[in-house]
Specification:
The structure is a single chain. This protein folds into four domains: 2-49, no CATH class; 57-119; 125-256, Jelly Rolls (Sandwich), CATH 2.60.120.1440; 263-334, 3-Layer(bab) Sandwich (Phage tail protein beta-alpha-beta fold), CATH 3.55.50.30. Strands 1, 2, 3, 4, 5, 6, 7, 8, 9, 10, 11, 12 and 13 form a 13-stranded mixed β-sheet that branches. A three-stranded mixed β-sheet has the order 15-18-17. Strands 14-16 form a two-stranded antiparallel sheet. It is an alpha+beta fold. The chain contains nine helices and 18 strands. The chain is globular, with a radius of gyration of 28 Å. The protein is 34% helix and 32% strand.
């Protein structure tokens, strides 16, 4: 069946010229992920050859406002006094204008959202999950739990090497013959610009950090209204608070920041409150610590945990405290 699916048939499908049997064949063919990517690529090509009508919602709205101005409603008092009542045909025309304006607005919005889904591939991880992938340019990425990476479907490695990260990921970037930059963009008002290197990026609501293992990266960030940048060298750790105030220090063992790839946890003067953030962000748990003094206690140590329950058990043993989990609720208290 797949041998019968080709560009000509898919283009006919986009033109709405396929039969019910052909549409069923295409639906079965699309069940394979590789075919889905080919489908989107052909769709992009077809759209370039057949520009779609873009709804002129602004013009439609203006015509609607003009119509209302020229055809005002008659109030109850006017009717009572014998004023002219608007004919039924005017009422129907008014409703048609309203429906038309609404449809045009929805078409414009739907077209915009659909085009983003076509142009970009989004990789995501669930709570407690990590995922490795190889990009089209040969670079590799490991996504930490509760994270997402958006990558252009076409032209990546040729026209651009920009990706968009939410959460945490480790990158091993392949150098290209034309020295094309690899850019990691975030919603935290900072970008990481590299040529070929190994580094990790953490970008969540409570702040961000970048750790450089090998090579050289340049960090572009926005602090208030000022655009700034800093160049990092191997071993550097840059942290940014929610206001993008930057702190830079050098790590003796930067590779420990990537221990999560092997399901290992390294705590180096880490407060229990910071561990609670990790549990919330990576596992979707809601953590309650009974008192502030306990939240400020320090953890030191390294261990492996294959799941969140093993992690909670290790924390309990390290600090000799009580850690109780019920569903996604966790209570931490002294023994």
């Amino acid at each position: 069946m797949e041998a019968e699916i080709n560009k000509e048939l898919i283009f006919s499908h986009f033109d709405r010229k396929t039969s019910p049997l052909q549409r069923e064949m295409i639906a079965q063919w699309l069940q394979q992920k590789s075919n889905e990517e080919q489908y989107y690529e052909w769709l992009e090509e077809w759209e370039m050859k057949h520009p779609q009508y873009l709804a002129q919602t602004g013009n439609a709205l203006q015509r609607y406002v003009t119509f209302l101005t020229e055809n005002p409603h008659s109030d109850a008092g006017s009717v009572a006094e014998g004023a002219n009542v608007r004919p039924l045909t005017d009422e129907r025309t008014w409703r048609q204008w309203l429906v038309a304006a609404t449809v045009l607005l929805l078409l414009g919005l739907g077209s915009f959202l659909f085009r983003n889904q076509i142009r970009y591939q989004t990789y995501q991880t669930a709570f407690g999950e990590t995922r490795s992938m190889r990009l089209a340019d040969g670079s590799t990425v490991v996504l930490n739990a509760n994270s997402s990476l958006r990558v252009p479907r076409w032209g990546f490695g040729h026209e651009t090497r920009e990706v968009w990260l939410t959460g945490e990921a480790a990158f091993s970037v392949t150098h290209t013959a034309d020295d094309q930059k690899f850019v990691v963009k975030t919603a935290n008002k900072f970008d990481v610009v590299v040529l070929g290197t190994e580094f990790s990026v953490f970008a969540r609501k409570r702040g961000a950090r970048v750790v450089l293992n090998k090579g050289k990266v340049r960090l572009h960030y926005q602090e208030g209204q000022t655009a700034k940048q800093v160049t990092m060298k191997p071993g550097d750790l840059v942290t940014l608070d929610p206001q993008n105030h930057l702190a830079l220090k050098t790590l003796q063992q930067p590779q420990q920041q990537l221990a999560w790839q092997e399901k290992r946890f390294v705590f180096d003067e880490t407060t229990l409150q910071e561990v609670a953030y990790l549990l919330e962000e990576n596992y979707g748990l809601q953590v309650s610590i009974k008192d502030r003094a306990l939240a400020e206690r320090i953890l030191m140590g390294s261990f492996r945990a294959d799941n969140v329950d093993q992690l909670l058990q290790s924390i309990s043993e390290l600090l000799d405290i009580s850690v109780v989990r019920q569903g996604n609720q966790v209570q931490i208290m002294d023994q």
